[in-house]
Design brief:
about 1150 residues, alpha+beta, FAD/NAD(P)-binding domain, Immunoglobulin-like, about 15% helix, disordered C terminus, metal-binding
Length: about 1150
């Protein structure tokens, strides 16, 4: 439609952006504006997410940044102008708060957009006129204007705001304006020095809000908001009456109300509006389309109105340029922008009322029930840290006691001792102690150097106690016995923060520094934070007797669930599978080469035997598997067999730098290992983000007989993956690892693919089966999902490689690298669907959008380059079709219809994953732990400003690491391109320079130590508890190579440790909650070098990993020798690298 003539109603933001891109595509546009000139008044607005990316593509980024308000953030203040909370421009982790880094006065942005288009030969502006009539003749549109002229256009686009008169002419009665119970007036007032560079937000009782935002023009933008359930139509009053009403409402509001009201009287740009949203089923009719607020106003509360207008304009123009007719263009425009709109219009629960409270209680939490003190004994660190310590320092700590139901602080909080009720507030370092009906808050302690410490952390490390005699805390703490009602007084005693709750500052103590073991201060990588083991009968055994089935009537004997059918129909839903015949030695050949499976995309995909995902490898438990991998790529490669124990074969794990050297191009490698444990798993590339580019496939290890095989007639495999429009290493790495991305935000995917198919193109036939087993494999690089099937309950029977007692759920969550098996019974289909006669139902695979740091994925269609990758725009909901009959037809109901709530169903698996019980358990329970290891996950910038990850303050760095992003690590025992760790374990056994486990003060268990390179040495047969403390804002799926582990508890379910003692669920990948923790236990019975890492591809690349070195001497005792084939492969890789110049991201 390159010759189209388009009329645009509205010269605000959406109209000029649309005109800009239409002009780029060779189309002519006329922009008509009711006002006599540009509307240069208005408040500050911001540009976020892909809205910013569109501005960048317009070439306007530098100009817009030069005119921003430079607002530093927003502060919540009280009537005395004291700050109660601050929200800076950039929040930790790189997200955006109330203030975007591009905050600009609306009129300034309007000028920039107008100036970018007004001189174009393809753009005409008409001011002081508007549309009065529209007649759609099918092949053209006849438009009448207020000044009497009549003109014809190919298309009309209404971009004239929330109260669009153009929309009323065409869509009369079809729009839905949804008031949100708030009226807001805007105007400009003179700047005062108290305005500073921060926006200030003040709440007064009665749902009244005053917001003052200094601009870059020497004035201050004022906003007065009224939130109530009143039906008062202030917007229908004239300006004089509106101002009088505002005066009356805010007269006693306090703070700077009198100043603001006085300035309002003289303001010529005063404007009042009702806050509402526009929701419509369709945004086009015939040759007329709606754009921005005219079609989908999200309200100012969302903060997304400007970005929606910009992105919508870009997409609409791009589709008009791409499609041959307006019908296809409008349909595609709606399909592409709808997910973005739905997300923007999804306001927080209770908004806007929750941000504009009606009462003083809503503005300020009630004071504590009681103020008192608790005596804490603190050990001053001695210079040499010997045992001749001075008597502990007694400190009276002020304590605030709250009723539990009125506790003002919001978690999650950090728990250093998992069985105790003592927690730390990560932000303020306050200590929170729970009792059955009360909650106590203790302030942070400040040492002589001004550093804050939580008392919870000091207790955990043995530096503080409730008694003078015992310098470590007991599990059974009754804080009520330590609380005294007499308050602590003095000039240095912190005050209660009546607005936020808790204390306003820390308490200074007479200690120069809480150094730990010679450290200057308390570092976050300390290994001392542990859970005490008070079980004096701990035998430290880990011998496993013959397992029993839980369904057995006699616990002393084994009962097996046998199959009543001799054959099972298995449909893998992958393109093809590799058959095998000889169970003594099962042979496969995998050829790796680039393929182009999607005609719409020019992106090369790493294919395995010509497909991606690769072919199904289907074997039986304890089979000897022999796999020949031929590398026909132009870069080295390796394949990891996820979840396979590799007992006795530590060099077959496929982890480059730990178990092998990479396979050079033109070479091949024979992998030979025992197929154990049984279960649903997968294989994937373990080098250079090759998983992201298609190097993965399903691996099923079957039991003899398979549990529950008598319950289902067929099975399906769903292998879920992220799709990126451009290659990972050459295209995405420079974006991810650069100074412009200091927080290391991972690039969000462009689409979801399942079994190689994009949404709504995958059909799963029932083929006459009443009961179907599904094996879900989350083979993504970044995304996690919630899985459900319309009208059916899901019976979980396997997590990773652990068979469970059937566990009925409506839905469950699966994180990166995890697997879940379930079956559905089609005879249980909800009557709502049976009565509709639908031939099929939807399988819903819903991505968790919270993991994506940006509003929508970064890579939107680059229309300006005339390149249209497939798919075009991210949709977080993937829909597959489960065909109930033989027609394979789509469901007859709308995909937007919600699944009916099923009755008598347990909570979703993602809520309490630990509630899933293993089918087979050890008769003697789980072995007691003999060692302890603390893992703390943090993110930050390295010395060059690049975002990296840290485990106990160490970034796992190696030239053999995923992205080859950093310099070589220090010399010594470390993963290396040409000598993997497992080879060094044999050659340097006993000389690895890794500290042995250390029994530290206050610890009942030896603590696993590490060297400076992130290697942890673990004795043979040690039973290790690992506490993973995730300080980051997102969930992290941690995978341990070479072992399975028990999930003991997590911050989401701490009571699981006691509730399921001795019967924990076992997995190989655990999802550690955002800002929380997980505790796992494993037996180090498999000598070798094993990765323990976050399985998000981008985080592994950032160095979020450690190497677990298990029993080097035992490896020799077991008769392991460095294979000659492995050494030759390392030599071949070295020869290849002398002639190969890889494409690396620029530093």
């Amino acid at each position: 439609m390159s010759k189209s003539n388009v009329l645009i109603a509205g010269a605000g933001i959406a109209g000029p952006v649309l005109a800009f891109w239409l002009s780029r595509a060779g189309m002519r546009s006329v922009v008509v504006e009711r006002a006599p000139g540009l509307r240069t008044a208005g408040q500050t607005i911001d540009i976020r997410g892909v809205g910013f990316e569109v501005v960048r593509r317009m070439g306007l980024e530098e100009l817009i940044r030069s005119r921003t308000t430079r607002e530093q953030g927003i502060a919540i203040v009280d009537a005395s102008n004291r700050k109660r909370a601050e929200f800076p421009v950039s929040l930790p982790g790189g997200g955006q708060g109330f203030t975007s880094d591009i905050e600009i006065v609306r009129g300034e942005l309007v000028k920039i957009l107008y100036e970018s288009t007004c001189n174009s030969n393809n753009v005409e502006y008409v001011f002081e006129d508007y549309i009065t009539s529209i007649k759609d003749h099918g092949d053209r549109v006849e438009v009448g204007f207020a000044k009497g002229s009549v003109r014809e256009f190919d298309l009309v686009v209404a971009a004239d705001g929330m109260h669009s008169k153009t929309r009323r002419l065409v869509f009369d009665g079809q729009s839905s304006l949804r008031p949100l119970g708030q009226h807001v007036c805007y105007f400009t007032i003179p700047y005062h020095e108290s305005d500073g560079t921060w926006a200030r937000w003040y709440n007064a009782p009665g749902g009244r809000t005053i917001l003052l935002r200094p601009d870059n023009l020497g004035t201050t933008r004022a906003l007065l908001a009224i939130t109530s359930n009143s039906s008062e139509a202030y917007e229908k009053l004239d300006v004089k009456a509106q101002k009088e009403a505002i005066h009356k409402i805010f007269a006693d509001a306090g703070w700077e109300a009198s100043r603001v009201l006085s300035a309002m009287d003289a303001a010529s740009d005063f404007y009042l509006q009702e806050i509402a949203q526009i929701k419509m089923e369709h945004w086009s009719k015939g040759r007329v389309a709606l754009l921005g607020d005219a079609g989908y106003c999200p309200s100012p509360i969302s903060g997304m109105g400007t970005s929606l207008a910009i992105v919508g304009s870009y997409i609409l123009a791009g589709e008009l340029a791409r499609c041959k007719n307006h019908q296809d263009a409008f349909a595609s425009y709606e399909s592409l922008i709808r997910p973005y709109v739905d997300k923007a219009q999804k306001l927080p629960p209770g908004a806007p009322q929750i941000a504009n409270p009606q009462t003083q209680f809503g503005i300020s939490p009630k004071p504590p029930e009681a103020l008192g003190r608790i005596t804490i004994y603190i050990r001053k660190p001695s210079p040499d840290d010997d045992d001749d310590r001075k008597p502990p320092l007694r400190v009276y700590i002020p304590a605030a006691r709250y009723y539990a139901r009125r506790f003002p602080l919001k978690g999650p909080f950090l728990n250093f001792m998992l069985s105790t009720p003592i927690f730390a507030n990560r932000a303020t370092q306050e200590t929170i102690i729970y009792s059955p009906s009360r909650v106590y808050i203790l302030p942070a302690l400040t040492d002589g150097r001004g550093k804050l410490y939580s008392i919870a952390r000091l207790i955990a490390t043995g530096y503080a106690s409730f008694t003078a005699e015992e310098m470590h805390s007991s599990k059974s703490i009754d804080v009520n016995t330590y609380f005294q009602s007499s308050a602590v007084t003095g000039a240095r005693v912190p005050k209660i923060d009546t607005q936020r709750g808790g204390f306003s500052s820390g308490l200074r103590v007479n200690v120069d520094s809480f150094g730990i073991y010679g450290d200057e201060d308390m570092n976050d990588d300390s290994d001392e934070y542990y859970e005490e083991d008070n079980d004096k009968n701990n035998k430290h055994h880990h011998t496993y007797d013959k397992p029993r089935h839980r369904n057995s009537k006699d616990d002393s004997s084994e009962t097996t669930i046998t199959s009543t059918k001799k054959t099972t129909s298995v449909s893998t839903a992958t393109k093809k599978s590799v058959p095998h015949y000889d169970h003594a030695g099962v042979n496969f050949t995998l050829i790796l080469e680039y393929i182009f499976p999607y005609p719409q995309s020019k992106k090369p995909v790493i294919g395995i035997n010509g497909t991606s995902p690769g072919p199904l490898i289907d074997v039986f438990e304890n089979d000897t598997v022999i796999i020949r991998v031929i590398n026909r790529l132009d870069v080295p490669t390796a394949i990891h067999w996820h979840g396979v124990r590799q007992i006795g074969t530590p060099d077959m794990d496929g982890a480059v730098g730990l178990s092998q050297c990479a396979i050079p191009p033109g070479h091949e490698m024979i992998y030979k290992f025992q197929a154990t444990p049984a279960g649903s798993t997968w294989y994937h590339g373990h080098l250079l983000e090759q998983l992201t580019d298609g190097l993965f496939g399903p691996l099923i290890i079957r039991r003899r007989p398979e549990s529950y095989s008598d319950l289902y007639q067929s099975e399906q495999i769903l292998t879920i993956a992220d799709w990126y429009n451009i290659p990972a290493h050459t295209g995405l790495v420079p974006y991810h690892y650069s100074p412009t991305n200091p927080f290391g935000l991972p690039p969000p995917p462009d689409a979801i693919v399942v079994n190689g198919s994009f949404t709504q193109s995958l059909v799963i036939p029932a083929n006459g089966s009443e009961v179907i087993r599904f094996r879900v494999i989350c083979a993504t690089a970044f995304s996690m999902f919630t899985i459900s099937i319309d009208g059916l309950r899901l019976y979980i029977i396997e997590v990773d490689t652990t068979t469970t007692i059937p566990y009925a759920v409506d839905s469950f969550t699966v994180n990166v690298a995890q697997r879940v098996s379930f079956y559905v019974n089609l005879t249980e289909l909800d009557p709502t669907y049976n009565s509709s006669g639908t031939p099929s139902v939807y399988i819903r695979i819903q991505a968790n959008e919270a993991v994506y740091a940006q509003d929508v994925p970064h890579f939107i269609p680059p229309y300006e380059n005339r390149c249209y990758p497939y798919p075009t725009f991210f949709t977080s909901l993937y829909l597959a079709v489960l065909s109930l009959d033989s027609t394979n037809s789509a469901p007859t109901y709308a995909a937007s219809s919600a699944t009916p709530i099923l009755s008598n169903v347990s909570p979703p698996l993602d809520t309490n994953i630990l509630d899933a019980r293993p089918l087979i358990r050890n008769a003697d329970g789980i072995p007691d732990s003999t060692h302890y290891c603390y893992i703390e996950v943090t993110f930050g910038a390295d010395s060059d400003g690049y975002g990296v990850a840290f485990v106990n303050n160490v970034t796992y760095s190696s030239d053999a690491n995923y992205m080859h992003m950093r310099d070589d690590p220090p010399a010594g025992f470390t993963s290396d391109l040409y000598e993997p760790l497992v080879f060094q374990m044999v050659r340097k056994a006993g000389q690895l320079a890794i500290p042995s486990p250390l029994l530290q003060a206050g610890n009942d268990l030896p603590v696993i130590q590490s060297d400076q390179n992130g290697h942890y040495l673990i004795p043979y047969q040690a039973v290790v508890d690992i506490l993973i403390n995730n300080t980051a804002g997102g969930e992290h799926p941690f995978h341990l190579h070479g072992h399975n582990f028990w999930i003991v508890s997590s911050s989401d379910y701490p009571e699981a440790e006691k509730l399921y003692a001795g019967d924990y669920i076992q997995r190989d990948t655990v999802s550690v909650p955002a800002g929380g923790w997980a505790k796992i236990r494993f037996v180090a019975d498999n000598p070798g070098a094993w990765f323990f890492h976050c399985h998000i591809e981008w985080h592994m690349a950032d160095g979020l990993a450690v190497a677990i070195i298990v029993a080097p001497e035992q490896l020799l005792t077991n008769g392991y020798n460095i294979p000659q084939s492995g050494q030759k492969q390392c030599e071949a890789l070295q020869r290849f690298n002398t002639t190969y110049d890889p494409v690396l991201p620029s530093n």
